[in-house]
Amino acid sequence: MIPAVMYGHGIKPQNIWVTYLEFEKAYKEAGESTVIELEIDGKKVNVLVHDNQVDPITGKFTHIDFFQVNMDEKIETNIPLEFIGESPAIKELGGMLVKSLDEIKVSCLPADLPSEIIVDISRIKAFSDHIKIKDLDISDKVKVLDDENMVVALVEAPRTEEEMASLDEKVEEDVTKVEGVVKETPATEGEEKKEEKKEDKKK
Question: How far is the C-alpha of 47 from the C-alpha of 72, rounded, in Å?
Answer without folding.
Answer: 13
